[in-house]
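Page 37, top half.
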Amino acid sequence: MSHPFVRAMMPVDAVWSPDTALAVFVMWGAMMVAMMLPSAAPMILAFDSVERGGGQAGRTVSRSLVFAGAYLLVWVLFSLLAAGAQWALQAGALLTPMIESSSDRLTAGLLLLAGLYQLTPLKQACLRYCRTPLGFLMAEWREGMRGAFGMGLKHGLYCAGCCWALMLLLFVAGVMNPVWIVFLTVAVALEKWPRLPAGLTRLYGAALLLAGAAILF
C-alpha cells in the first residue's frame, strides 16, 4: 500500500482534510517547479552570465539564486490556484480519481480556452519577454538582492501570463499522467525557445481549437 501522503494527493471527492489539501498543494508545487524550470533555464543562465560579467563572484551566486527563487515563487503561488481549481472540479464531479477530466464539455472547454488564449495580444506580449532573455535583462536590470528578487518575480509573472492556460490542460489527460506532463513541458519549452519560429504559438492555438471543437461538436 502506498504512503498516506501519496494517497492524499489523489483525493476521490471534494471533502479534503488539512493533510489532503497540503498534499495536493505540494504535488502541484513540485510539478510546476519541475515543468517550468526547463523553459526558464535560458533566462536564469543569462542572468547568471551577466552577473559573472560584473566580476563579483560571491554576489553572483546569491543574486542568481534569489532571481531563480523569485521566479519559482510565482509558480508556487499558481499551485495554490491550481489546487483550488482541482477542489472545485472535484466538487462538481468533473474529475476522475486520477485527476483527469471526466466530462467532454470540460475537456473541450479547456482546449478551446487554451487555444483562444494562444492567439491573444496578451499571450504574444508575455511570450516576447520570455523569448528574449538579454532584452528582458537590459530593460529590467536592477542592482542588489531586492533588485534580483524583483526581476525574478517580474519574469515569473510574464511566464505565468504566457503559460497559465496551457498548464490548465493538465486536467485534460490527467495531473498524474507522466507522459502528458512531459508533453506539456516540452511544448512550453519549445514555444519559448528564441530560435524557433514565433508562429509556433499560433500553430498550438489552431491545433487546440480544432481538438476542442472536435470534442464539443
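Page 37, bottom half:
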Amino acid sequence: MDYRITAAERASYKRCRRQWDLGSVHRRNLEPVEPGPVDVASAVRDALAVYYYPGMWDWQSAIVLPLVRKAFMRSIAEQPPSLQRTTNVDLGTALLERYLEWAPSLDDFGPIRIAHEVEALVPDPSETGRGLHLPDGRRILYSDRIDLLAIDVYDVYWVVRHQVVSDWQDVRRLLLDEEAVAACWAWEQTYLGMDVAGTIHNEIRVRADDLGLPPPATATGRAGRGGYPQHEASGGGRSIPQQQRQFGRPEAPAAIERVEQRTSGMIRRTRIRRTRQEINGMGALIAAEALEMLDPAVATYPTPGAWCSSCAFDVPCLTMSEGEDPALDLAARYRTRAVGSPVTGRLGAAGGSRGGVLPPS
C-alpha cells in the first residue's frame, strides 16, 4: 500500500509538530474519546458540493436548493452528537441560506469537478524524473480533496477553496496559502495537460451585520443561480470530451491583475493568479517536508498560537510542556483512530463534469 501524506496532515505538521505527532495516522494516530463540536464548515462544504454539482448546474433553483439543504443536514447528522449541536446547526443553517441568496452575485464561472480527490507522486529531490519511495518500495504520494475546480469564460481553470471565517483574511495570507497552491500542483500532476491558472478563495463570513441585506443581481446576468451555463458554447459549457473551446472563446484582456477581489454581503472572492514557478515549485517543497516527516528522529516540538484554543491535544500538550508524563492524559482522553474505515461517498466526487471527461492521466 502506498504511503500517503494528506493535505490535512501536511498542514498539521507545518502548524504544530506536537499536534501532528499525536494525531497523524503515520505517528501516534490518536483521536479524542469525547467528540468535538459539530463542524459547521465541513457541513457547509458538503452542501456547496451539491450546489455546484456540474450535472445539476443548469437545473432550476427550486429543484437544486432543497437538495443543498438536505446535504447540509445529512452532513451534520453524520457527525457525533455534541452539546453545541443545536447552536451550531442554527448557525450553519443561517449561513447557508445567506450564501444561497448572495452567491449568484459573484459566481462568474462554470463548475467542472466538486469534492474531487487528487494524488501526486512526491518527486525525489536527488533524481530528476523519479518519485520518492520508501525503502520497501512503496510510493510516497501527496493527496488532497479539492472543493471545486471551475472554468471561467476564457476557458481558464481555477482551484476554488471554500472557507468559513469570522472575518476577512489578509490578502497576504491568501497569497502565501501553500495548501491552495499545492492543490493546483497536485491537480496538474493527476491530470497532465490541464494547467491551472490559480486559486479562488471563497470566504464565507460569520457576522450578524451581514444578515438581512437584499442580494444584488447575478454576476453574469443569468437568472437563477447565475454563473455560466453548461449547455451553451457562449458560456463555456459544451458536450465534448474537452472543456476548453477551440472557437467562440472571448479574448482575454491584455492587462490582468494578479489579485482580484469582489465582495457581496457575507461572501468575498479573492482570485489569485499563480505563477508557473509557484505551482511547479510545490513538488520540491512537499518532497523536503516529506523527508522530514519520514525521519524517526524528527523533532516534535509545540508551536503555540491561536489554534491552541481549539486543539484536540491541548491537555497532554500542557502536561508535556510542564515536564510531566502525559501517559494518564492520553489513556483517559484518547484512543487509537481506526485505520481503513470506509469513506462516505459524496455527490459528484468522482464525476459530474460538463458532459465530458477529463484528459487521461
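Margin note: The longest helix spans residues 61-78.
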